[in-house]
Amino acid sequence: MEAKSFRKAGHSPSLLSAFLYFDVSFMIWVLCGALSLYITKDFGLTDTQKATMVAIPILGGSVFRIPMGILADRIGCKKAGLIGMSLTLIPLLWGWLGGTSLLEIQMIGFLLGFAGASFAVSLSLASRWYPPQYQGLAMGIAGAGNSGTALATFFGPQIAQAYGWHNVFGIAMIPLIIVMIVFAILVKDAPNAPAPKPLKNYLSVFKHADTWWFSMFYAITFGGFVGFANYASIFFYDVYGDSTHPGGLTKVQVGYLVTITVIAGSLFRPVGGWIADKIGGMRLLVILYSVISVCAFAISTMPDSFFVMLLYTSVMMACLGMGNGSVFQIIPQRFSSEIGVITGIVGAAGGLGGYLLPTYILGPLKQSTGSQVTGFLVVGSIVLITTLIFYAVTRSWRKTWAKAESGVNF
To answer: What parts of the sequence cross the membrane (predicted)?
Structure first.
């Protein structure tokens, strides 16, 4: 009965298209991370350079998400999505036919941020079609498109092994073009989409403290997910790979492990949104942040068995994925009329968190200490502090806009 009510409440073809757009875009966005073991071998990079290389696309996504969110509000999600996918073809073509120097790879990676900016469009499209009681589930389904990471980490290394990593970029254009056609045919902009406003009106959300709080909290959940998803191949191969341990994991096997951890985070995103609809995103996030912190400390013990490590990383990624869904169960309740731009801003903060994690924490600490231990001790401590801050901030929200009489679980 509930599933039937959910389907009737919105527009299923648009929700499916939002998922597909996000899925193929996310697959493309993390290609540098999925192919990192092959790309870095060609250029002989240091630990810090490796971390920076896989993080640059995340930075690009952060930069492009805000203008894409504004574009979605001004011209509609359908046109904005088609523009975003068209722009994504540029770095794929460049990576296929060029990418012969480290500078080129970094520029291609930055332009892959057009794919990462799909977040601001796909989640806005999903949100506008569904009422408040289904926001968590609808945005969780659209956001489950981050499962595209699993496609990249599973197929990317195999294709690179067989045909070379440049051809992976060329092959990736095929599913993107297919999704563009589906998106153009199926998507309808929601009838309740707000009328275009002057640019300064969109940017006025920066004046609200809640914008910054949401940005911080999402920088932990999404930043943790995408940052580790991009760095995971380097991490697993460094700790368990055959380059350091005789008989250790091959690059393709590492891709399988990364795929498992990514699937955990992706599949649990809509679950997090659904649970948040039931018990409240604020309640759920306190639990999730706590578990994420514990997992980070557990990873820092560097168990000898990669199966145990796989368990720790998968639970952490599952909680990060659920956290992503939970944050976006709350946001539309606070910023319903500015959902496009606020999604872009908060999404940009999430991407920035994903850029900072490997570039300024995991990579440099590995290079300076020779071990991955310190990086995850720092991550666990940051998340622990964020848990306490989140609890304090939400107590204030419950006294202002997140009230029980609204009919929405917080």
So the answer is: 20-39, 80-99, 105-125, 137-156, 168-190, 211-234, 254-272, 284-300, 306-327, 339-361, 373-393
- For residues 66 and 68, what is the distance between their CA atoms, to the nearest angstrom? 5
Residue 100: count other Cβ atoms within 10 Å of its Cβ: 10
Residues 351 and 61: their CA atoms lie apart, in Å, by 6
Q: Is 252 buried (19+), middle (13-18) or exposed (0-12) by CB count in 10 A?
A: middle
Look-up of token digits 């539309």 = 332
Residue with tokens 């993107």, as numbered in its chain: 176
Mark out the alpha helices in 76-164 (DSSP H runs).
77-97, 102-111, 113-116, 118-129, 135-143, 148-163
Rounded to whole angstroms, the Cα distance separating 224 from 229 reads 8
Q: How far apart are CA 294 and CA 203, in angstroms?
A: 37
User: Which residue, among 191, 179, 195, has the nearest Cα to 130 in the 3D structure?
Assistant: 191
Strand, helix or coil for residue 396: helix
Length of the chain: 410
pTM, to two decimals = 0.82
